[in-house]
Amino acid sequence: MKTELELQRFYPSELEIANIFQTDSEIHIKMFFRSKNCTCPKCGTISVHRHGTYERKIQDLSILGKSTWLFVNSYEYQCDNPDCDITTFVETINGFLSYYSRMTDRCADFICTLAMETSCEGCSRICRAMNLEISGDSVIRLLTKRLNYRRR
C-alpha cells in the first residue's frame, strides 16, 4: 500500500515541485516554472528573452490544517516586440497564479466565496482558524479587485 501523497498532481504542469519542507504548522513547497518562454500580457508577443529571476512567496489553500506556502522561482521577461511599451513582465498561469499576486487564484476564490456568505471580518476570522493569513481589510481589497476585473 502506497502512503505518499503525490502533490504534483494538484498543481499545474507548468510548475515543478523541487522540494517540500514542513514544520508543525506550515508546509513550504519550493517550485519552479518549466517554461522557456512567456506571452506578453499587453501585446501577446511570445518572448524568450529572460530579464531576471526572483522567488515569489505565494499562499495556497491549507493542506491537512497546515499553512501552505509556495516558493516559486519566477522569471521576468522582456517583451521582444519593439513597439510594446511594457518593459518587463513576470510568468503567470491562467486560472492558478496571476501577475504579482500573493496567493493562488483558488485560494482567492475560496476567500471571496466565504466573504460573500459571511462578512469580510467574519471571513478573516474563519480563514485564520484554517491557517490562511488574511485580514478583513485585505478581504475587502480582494473582493474589490475581483469585481473591477470582471467589469472589464
Provide a descriptive summary of the structure in words.
The protein has 152 residues and is of the alpha+beta class. 26% of the residues lie in helices and 33% in strands. It has helices spanning 105-117, 120-129, 136-151; strands spanning 15-22, 26-33, 38-39, 46-47, 50-63, 66-78, 88-90. Strands 1, 2, 5, 6 and 7 form a 5-stranded mixed sheet that branches. Strands 3-4 form a two-stranded antiparallel ribbon. Strand 5 (50-63) and strand 6 (66-78) form a beta hairpin. The longest helix is centred in the last third of the chain and has 16 residues, at 136-151. The radius of gyration is 17 Å and the shape is flat.
Number of helices: 3
| Oligomeric composition of the shown chains | single chain
Helix content: 25-40%
Provide mean pLDDT, rounded.
88
Strand content: 25-35%
What is Rg?
A: 17 Å
Query: What is the total tally of β strands?
Result: 7
Describe the global form: flat
Distance between the termini: 50 Å
Low-confidence stretches: none
Describe the main β-sheet briefly.
5 strands, mixed
Structural class: alpha+beta
The helix-strand sequence is EEEEEEEHHH
